[in-house]
C-alpha cells in the first residue's frame, strides 16, 4: 500500500481514500494530509483512527495542510487572524493530537509541514521563508544550508508572570514513582507547557513517564510536561551555548521522543532559572537533547524564540476512510 516518499502520489483526497505522507521531526511523528481545496472534514474519530499505531498509519499527531483563505471563509477564527497578521500565509497547519483533540501549535510539526509543502509543490523554501498560519499565529520557516528548518515561533510568556520568574516556580508536578512533587515553571508557546527541573541524568533516565504527570494547579487548557536536566555551557561557533536534556509527556498523546514547543519551553525555563526573566548573562542559544535527537532553540533579538531542527518525510500512501 505504501510507496517511497520520492515517488509522486495523488494528493487530493477522494471520498473513500485519503492520500497521506508519514513524516517526523526528531521522531515526533505525524500523518500529513494535503487538502488543497480546504474541503476535508476531519473529525476526532478519524484522527484517532489515522494516528492509531496498530490499525491506522500511526503518529503522535495528524496534520492537515489547507488553504488559510478557505478556512477563514468557513469561519475558522485562527485562519482569519492569520490572514490579518500576514496575508502571505497561504497555507494553514490544522494540527490534531493522536487522541483527536485540537492543539494550537506544534513546533516539530511546523518544520515537517514545510517539508511536506515543498514535496507537494506548494512552497519553495529555496526562494525565501515560508509563512504559514497556525492556531497560535503565523510562523515563518527558513531552510538552513545544512538542511535544517528554522522556525520563528513568535512571542512566548510565563503565565505566572514576574513573581513566578522570581520564585523560579509556579506549579508542582508529581510523576509516577516520585515520593514528593517537584517545583515547576509554566511557559506558554501558544500551547501550554510545565517544565520541571530534575537533579540528575540518572533521575531523568530511570523515571517511568508513561502515565500522565499530575500538575497542580492544572492550567485551564491542560498542559504538556517537560522534565529537564541542565548540562552546562559550551563554546559554539557564535558564542556560548547552553545544553540540556529533556523528556516530554505531551497533552493528548503521552510520552513522545520529542516536542518542539516543549524544547523551547524547556530552554526558556532553564534560562529563567539561571538568570531570571531578563535572562541577563545566560546563553541565548540552547541545544536540547531529546530521546529522538537534538534541536536548537535561540532567543532572537526581537524577543521571539526560534526553533531549528530536522524534518523527514518517510513514505506516502493511500489509506481507506
Ligand atoms: N509535538 C508538538 C506539540 C503538539 C501539541 C501538544 N501535544 C499540545 O497539545 O499542546 C511540538 O513539537 O511542539
From TrEMBL:
Region annotation (Disordered) ranges:
1-21
Q: Compositional bias (Low complexity) spans?
A: 1-17
Tell me the enzyme class: isomerase
Site positions (Could be important to modulate the pK values of the two catalytic cysteine residues): 193, 250
Q: Look up the domain of life of the source.
A: Bacteria
For whether the record's keyword set contains Lyase, the answer is no
Q: What does this protein do?
A: Catalyzes the stereoinversion of LL-2,6-diaminopimelate (L,L-DAP) to meso-diaminopimelate (meso-DAP), a precursor of L-lysine and an essential component of the bacterial peptidoglycan.
Q: What is this protein called?
A: Diaminopimelate epimerase
